[in-house]
Amino acid sequence: MRIVYLYQELAFWGGADRVITEKANYLADICNYEVFMVTTCQNHPIVFPLSPNVKHIDMGINFYEQYKYPLIKRIFIYLKLIRKYRRELEKLLKSIKPDITITTLCKDLDVITSIKDGSFKIAEAHLAKEFVRDLHIYKRKSLPYKIMGKILSCRTNRAIKKLDGFVVLSNSDAYNWREIREATVIPNSLPFYPSETSKCEHKKIISIGRLEEQKGYDMLIKAWSIVHHKHLDWEINIFGKGTLKKRLDIEIEKEGITNSFIIKEPVQNIVEKYIESSFYVMSSRFEGFGMVLIEAMACGLPVISFDCPDGPSDIISDNEDGILVKNGNIEELAEKICFLIENDEIRRKMGEAARKNVKRYMPDVVMQEWILLFKSLNNAK
Prior knowledge:
Layout: E1 2-7, H1 15-29, E2 34-39, E3 54-58, H2 71-96, E4 100-103, H3 109-112, E5 120-124, H4 135-140, H5 143-162, E6 165-168, H6 171-176, E7 184-185, E8 204-208, H7 217-230, E9 235-239, H8 245-255, E10 261-264, H9 270-275, E11 279-282, H10 291-298, E12 303-306, H11 312-315, E13 322-325, H12 330-342, H13 344-357, H14 363-380
Parallel strand pairs: 1-2, 1-4, 2-3, 4-5, 5-6, 6-7, 8-9, 8-11, 9-10, 11-12, 12-13
Protein name: Glycosyl transferase
Domain Glycosyl transferase family: 201-356
Keywords: Transferase
């Protein structure tokens, strides 16, 4: 089978980049499929290494250049670039002749269903419906942006209806899409399941994610300021970088928690950091799935998360392998962090349950669902 993955740029230490890379590598190395990773413009080094069996093709069409200009000029530049992108992508797909072409709901969604290259077109969503293509941001801006957001939303829904397959990460998100079309639920798979696990004894807590609004670290800072005054000997380590770094540093200093709320650069040996910790906290406003939750659980950590849309409620069995907190409730988040700090035995037993329960996300289990989807399309053909 020949498969093409379309992605903007494999350049971020985020869950989506890791998941897509791991999936492409599995299909190429384990399934022996012919896999092509086609990026729009790879401006930076690829963070998570692609297998030598995955063929990487970069189209070199830099959509980022439009953001240097005011809104009206940006629209004209975008239209020019998207026309060029469609021409080049059609030429490329007709030369590759894939059986399956996969989009991740980026700009390629605007053109992919109109390209008649003979391949089945599948989209996979890595964010909940409300947040796909940054639609939530358009809603908060001025009237011209709101109009653009509505147009983009209509175009997105129309394109998704035309696809041959549509995959989401959680049952709740499938429910959100029900009025547009039926979605197949296939969760992300574990990138690792280490033999060594955390003993949940260190006075350290961990959180991982980009320093952006989505991850809710402003709320976690407020929650930690409550926890810190009760448990001065504990610390929380955040691994990530992003545009909000300076603003978060100011908030940390303002709350007087600079010695216990520590932001660190992303690291490659993240498994070691999980194992050095006693539990994981996720304060996201929204997620597509919550990759870091299953990674932490694989390392034997219990997890605490806001019950945000979408993913955590699919992953966490509340009070068994982790704790779900009402979305955005900072006081409850602080209370549950204190609860796990103060109850060593419960923390340890939750970590054991997490390690056991997360096996349902092992790659061989999850990737079989993808293979069945591909085969069902080919059989229909």
